[in-house]
Amino acid sequence: MRLTTLLLAAACAVPAARAQQTAATPERDAAAVYIAQGNFIIARLAAECLPVVGRAESPKAYAKAWQDRNAVFIAASSKYLDRRVAEAGADQGEALRDAFRKAVQDNGEAALRSLLQGQREEGCMTGITLVDTGALDINAKLPQYPQLEALVRWANQP
Q1: How is the chain split into domains, by residue range?
Q2: I need a surface site. Which of 55, 99, 116, 125 has the fewest CB within 10 A?
Q3: CB of 117 within 8 A of CB of 28?
């Protein structure tokens, strides 16, 4: 019985030690998806809504302004995804990237559809106003901010 317990403990210690050496954690995964999803939503909102609300700036410039305000988080998300793909290796890396992209797009599309349901002009005005006022920026008021900030700390490690 004691030998079985020792063997189980040793078997569990190997994956735990490996997990500490890898970038992957569920918290980082969630934070990276959240950041990328925000970026996706802003870009789509700009493309679909700027003409509807009569704004002259280009969707690309509009999205870039949001990206600039949230650059530290976007860079951390990108670095994390690159590390995750590299750690997954050639066989699984692209599948991981595709799964990440699908999660971002599916969740982003659902959020955008929810925002734009009903009167399109009203939904677009609401969305653009949220971006303009910084309400969709990443900040300490978000419940997931500790995870987002932790991802940035991880990304800034040497």
Answers
A1: 32-155
A2: 99
A3: no
